[in-house]
Specification:
single chain, 161 residues, alpha+beta, Glutaredoxin, 2 domains, four-stranded mixed β-sheet, elongated, binds FE2/S2 (inorganic) cluster
């Protein structure tokens, strides 16, 4: 979607039209765009703004507030580390720091090879298995720092095969 081809513009307009009758369509529109393309860059927000009359500033505010929306393309494997209270007291900070150190990216970033995105999440509702991490939806319960190198290696190995 880098140069926003004509068919991408058409699709975004179509998504906006889908919710034209809704009183508060923004979240639905952005969710559908995120699902369709995996991210919502500024040029897309401008189209949504033109179609809905909602200001780009407001749209940008929503996209940057919710962690499931993204301004940039995400990596093939999205690592979500919960930093909610229950996970935090069980060492979640060390867990996210370890992912960060091994992959060489900060939370919110994507590795240059496009393989990993590291996200810090609020409570994901799995406090009983804290600290919890999800990778593309798969939950890793009670994760300890020493398990992390092997997990990252496994995902890298999937690519090498
Ligand atoms: S605080 Fe991490 S799952 Fe609830």
């Amino acid at each position: 979607m880098a140069h926003l081809q004509e068919n991408a513009v058409k699709k975004i307009v179509e998504i906006c039209d889908r919710y034209a009758q809704e009183r508060t369509p923004l979240m639905m529109i952005l969710s559908d765009i995120q699902k369709e393309y995996g991210y919502i860059p500024l040029e897309v927000q401008e189209i949504v703004s033109e179609k809905t009359g909602i200001s780009v500033a407001e749209i940008y505010g929503v996209v940057t507030f919710y962690s499931f929306f993204s301004l940039k393309p995400k990596g093939k494997y999205v690592i979500g580390c919960c930093l909610g209270t229950a996970c935090y007291v069980k060492g979640a900070q060390q867990v996210i720091d370890k992912f960060s150190e091994i992959i060489g990216i900060k939370p919110g970033e994507t590795s240059e090879d496009g393989l990993f995105t590291l996200d810090a999440l609020r409570c994901i509702g799995a406090c009983g298995i804290a600290p919890a991490v999800t990778i593309n939806g798969k939950v890793y319960p009670k994760l300890s720092v020493d398990q992390i190198p092997k997990i990252v290696e496994e995902y890298r190995a999937l690519e090498a095969n």
